[in-house]
Write a structure and sequence with these properties.
Function: Catalyzes the isomerization between 2-isopropylmalate and 3-isopropylmalate, via the formation of 2-isopropylmaleate.
Helix content: 25-40%
CATH architecture of the largest domain: 2-Layer Sandwich
Largest sheet: 5 strands, parallel
Organism: Asticcacaulis taihuensis
Number of strands: 19
Number of domains: 2
GO molecular function: 3-isopropylmalate dehydratase activity; 4 iron, 4 sulfur cluster binding; metal ion binding
Structural class: alpha/beta
EC number: 4.2.1.33
Distance between the termini: 52 Å
Radius of gyration: 22 Å
Low-confidence stretches: none
Shape: globular
Strand content: 15-25%
Bound molecules: 3-isopropylmalic acid, iron/sulfur cluster
Catalytic activity: (2R,3S)-3-isopropylmalate = (2S)-2-isopropylmalate
Length: 474
Amino acid sequence: MAQSTRPKSLFEKVWDAHVVEPEGANSPAVLYIDLHLVHEVTSPQAFSELEARGLKVRRPDRTFATLDHSIPTLRPDAQGNRPYVTKQAEIQVHTLEQNAAKNGVRLFGYDAENRGVVHVIGPEMGLTQPGYTVVCGDSHTSTHGAFGCIAFGIGTSEVGHVLATQCLAQRKPKTMRITIDGKLQPGVTGKDVALTVIATLGFSGGTGYALEYAGPVIEALDMEGRMTVCNLSIEAGARCGMIAPDQKTVDWLRGRQYVPQGEAYDAAAAEWLKLKSDDGATFDKEIRIDGSAIEPMATWGTSPDQGAPIVKGVPVAANEDEERALKYMHFTGGEKREVEKVDVVFIGSCTNGRMADLRAAAEIFKGRKVAEGVRALVVPGSEWVRVEAEKEGLDKIFTEAGAEWRLPGCSMCIAMNGDFVLPGQLAVSTSNRNFEGRQGPGSRTVLASPATAAASAIAGHVADPRQFMALEEA
Ligand SMILES: CC(C)[C@H](C(=O)O)[C@@H](O)C(=O)O
Ligand code: SF4
């Protein structure tokens, strides 16, 4: 087939390479799925449906499962019993264990060295590779877009479709390029970029779009920072977010378990590096953000787009929605962040539970103490992260500062496993959702970067991390 010479965006290149059946006036396109990730919460019904219809998993070799949402982050007791928070949590875990075994799907189970939060382990093992289509019954699948993948969350019935066919019916989204110019100031991280992007777009500003993040700020971010940015795409309503693979991507993935090895890797990498938007590629929408003006961010409301630079304090409500959010958060509007007493700090999740995140937090915790009355919980995103962090002695830095160091899982990000914030308590959290009650009934969540979370744990109030950093003069 003759190749079109029309300039294409990164999204179009990956999309076009996966179309099995083109989109019609009345029918969505059928897309081939390269990688299907599965966790215990959204898979049970999909497997039951498959069984009811007498179907098999079409590509068990492209389907990988993990346990993350419902598993306790505390160690088993002396008898080996796991401290599940409810019977239902335990059933979810056992159901996935059985479904995976029955269908020949690889499960990174409780004791597996590769277990972890689904969006942490995919990239970590090199299951996620540039140019792939990646789906999972989980909205933060957008994380994998940091590797130049079209990666998005699907519903449970779609999980069933992909299990049965390795394909998915999809309408092509519109495209939006978000270019972040300039250079980040010292102490400003990928999370601050992400919270700024969402605050700019609004919680539904990305609805119907596939985002591409580009520009010097994105190029300068490490892979962890890029994953954080892509992770939060869904919080602006976008279908997915992606970043063109570059030499950093190639270097980061090299040698990982599931990527090609040796010369085959170099050959794959040469193809990956072609995955970028052509000069002259057009987008349905383009926005630009001045990266040099981004500051450490913290949310003040009950939606991830309700965030502002910490130095600016809590804004005054501009409408009823904001008024309601401020009320829930026990803020009046207009106050300084220093007056927000913090009860809990959570560092972890698929947004910020990777090595780079834990190192950033440890730099602030080192030689300092968590303020009295603050509970700080550090939860690695995966077993691999846990082991690496322990090798570097980060766990010691956390525990000596007075923080808890746990086993990997989603933990307090979604509070399904027994780790939760008490009613009325204020948590500074490195996760991605600050909805009412997200971290436990009545919990109040402030989203921020690992550095800001650590700084807030030390200060006892929402704090700009730069006061604890030895920053070089720019
Ligand atoms: C449980 C799961 C379906 C959910 C999601 O889709 O994102 C969870 O991971 C979350 O972060 O809210
Ligand atoms: S860490 Fe949080 S956001 Fe990520 S998959 Fe788990 S529950 Fe969802």
